[in-house]
Design goal:
Blueprint: E1 3-5, E2 29-36, E3 40-48, H1 59-63, E4 66-68, E5 71-75, E6 81-84, H2 86-99, H3 107-120, E7 132-141, E8 154-163, E9 174-178, H4 196-200, H5 203-211, E10 216-220, E11 228-231, E12 235-240, E13 243-246, H6 257-268, E14 272-275, H7 280-288, E15 292-299, E16 303-312, E17 315-318, H8 326-339, E18 350-352
The structure holds pyridoxal-5'-phosphate (PLP).
C-alpha cells in the first residue's frame, strides 16, 4: 500500500524535557487509514496532526465500537530510537478488533506505518532519563447511523505524545482500594480487549477510591467477587513466600505486555513465577502470617508500580514496610534497562526504528 506524506508548514514549539507529564502534548503529524468494505483498508497517509470531523451520528460516539493500544518509543544513549515489543501491541490490537467486530490490520503495514511516523517525528522523542514518546494507535467505527450493528467503515489513526519520567520523585508506592461494589469486566465480556468501554466502566469506582484517598482500584472477579483480577489499568503481582504470583488470564483480564515481560524475566532468573487464581482472602491471610512480601502493578505507563497499602472492607494492610520492595525494583530496572538500550536484550524484545 502506498503511503502519502503531507508535511505540516507550522511546526509546533517542542516542550522542554523537564516540563513533560502524560498525554497533554501531541506531535506535529499523525497517521490515518480508512476502511471501506469495497476498498478494504486504503488511503494510508501521514498528515499534519488535526481534528477529526465527524457526523454527530457517527457510531463510535453512540455505541463505543472502538479499540486502542499504548506503547512507547525510547531514545538510547547513542541517539537511536527503539520500540519495546511492538508486535505484541499490534497482535493484541488485532485481537481487540476481532472481539469488537472491527477490521484487523496487516501486521507489517501497521509496524511500517508506525516506524515511518516516528522517523518523521524523531525530534519529538525526548532524551532525558525516564522520558519517552508514547504511541496511541486507535480505531473507531465511522458509519453515521443510529441503529445498533457493527459499523461498515472505520478510521484507524496513530498519534504520538512525548511523556515525562513516571518516577521523577522516586519509585513511589501507591495505595489501592479493593472494591466489592463494582466490577470492571466479566468472563465472556470485553475485559481482555483494550476498548474504551472498560475504562468507562472503571470511572465510578476509581472516583470513589480517590475520594477515600486511594490511587487505584483493585478489581475482583465479576462472578464471585473473590479472585483478584487487576488494578486500575495495570496487571498485578504478589510476592508471597518468595513466590511471584499473578492472576491467570481468564478472559476478563487484559493480557498486559509488561505482565508477560515480568513473567519471562522472572523465569529466566530462576524465580518461582506462578500464574493462577488468587483470592483476596489468600492475600489477607498471607499478610497476617507475614508471608506477603510485595505487591506491584505492571503496565506500559509506569512499567512497575509498587503497592504500599491495600484497603479491603474494614481492613487496611501495609505491604512490607510500605516502601517499594526489591523484587519490584529489580523488574523495573531490568525492563527499563532493555527499553533504553542500557543492557543487552536476550529476548528479542527491541525493534529499532
Ligand atoms: C493496557 C492495560 C494494561 C497493561 O498492559 P501493558 O501491555 O503492560 O501496557 C493492564 N490493564 C488494562 C485494563 C489495560 O488497558
Amino acid at each position: 500500500m502506498d503511503l502519502t506524506i503531507t508535511m505540516t508548514k507550522h511546526l509546533k514549539p517542542k516542550p522542554d524535557d523537564s516540563e513533560l507529564n502524560f498525554g497533554t502534548i501531541f506531535t506535529d503529524h499523525m497517521f490515518n487509514l480508512d476502511y471501506h468494505p469495497d476498498q478494504r483498508w486504503h488511503n494510508a497517509r501521514i498528515e499534519p496532526y488535526h481534528c477529526i470531523e465527524m457526523d454527530p451520528a457517527t457510531m463510535v460516539l453512540h455505541y463505543g465500537q472502538a479499540i486502542f493500544e499504548g506503547l512507547k518509543a525510547f531514545k538510547t544513549s547513542s541517539g537511536g530510537i527503539q520500540l519495546f515489543r511492538p508486535m505484541e501491541n499490534i497482535r493484541r490490537m488485532n485481537r481487540s478488533a476481532h472481539a469488537l467486530c472491527m477490521k484487523q490490520m496487516d501486521e507489517n503495514l501497521f509496524l511500517e506505518s508506525l516506524k515511518a511516523l516516528i522517523r518523521i517525528e524523531k525530534d519529538w522523542v525526548p532524551g532525558a532519563p525516564g522520558t519517552s514518546l508514547y504511541i496511541r494507535p486507535t480505531c473507531i467505527a465511522m458509519d453515521p447511523f443510529l441503529g445498533v450493528r457493527s459499523s461498515y467503515t472505520f478510521r484507524f489513526f496513530i498519534i504520538l505524545s512525548p511523556v515525562g519520567a513516571y518516577y521523577s520523585e522516586g519509585f513511589n508506592p501507591i495505595k489501592i482500594w479493593v472494591t466489592k461494589d463494582h466490577v470492571r469486566a466479566v468472563r465472556g465480556g470485553l475485559g481482555e480487549a483494550k476498548t474504551p468501554g472498560n475504562y468507562a466502566a472503571s470511572l465510578y469506582a476509581a472516583q470513589k477510591a480517590h475520594e477515600a484517598g486511594y490511587t487505584q482500584v483493585l478489581w475482583l472477579d465479576g462472578v464471585e467477587l473473590k479472585y483478584v483480577e487487576e488494578v486500575g489499568s495495570m496487571n498485578i503481582f504478589f510476592v508471597i513466600n518468595d513466590e511471584i504470583i499473578t492472576p491467570i488470564l481468564n478472559g476478563s483480564i487484559l493480557p498486559g505486555i509488561t505482565r508477560d515481560s515480568v513473567i519471562e524475566l522472572g523465569k529466566k532468573w530462576g524465580m518461582k513465577v506462578t500464574e493462577r487464581k488468587i483470592s483476596i482472602d489468600e492475600i489477607i491471610e498471607a499478610h497476617s502470617s507475614r508471608k506477603l512480601q510485595e505487591i506491584f502493578g505492571t503496565g506500559t505507563a509506569a512499567v512497575v508500580s509498587p503497592v504500599g497499602e491495600l484497603k479491603y472492607d474494614d481492613k487496611i494492610i501495609t505491604v512490607g514496610d510500605g516502601q517499594a520492595g526489591p523484587v519490584a525494583h529489580k523488574f523495573f530496572d531490568a525492563i527499563t534497562d532493555i527499553q533504553y538500550g542500557r543492557s543487552k536484550d536476550p529476548f528479542g524484545w527491541i525493534v529499532p526504528v
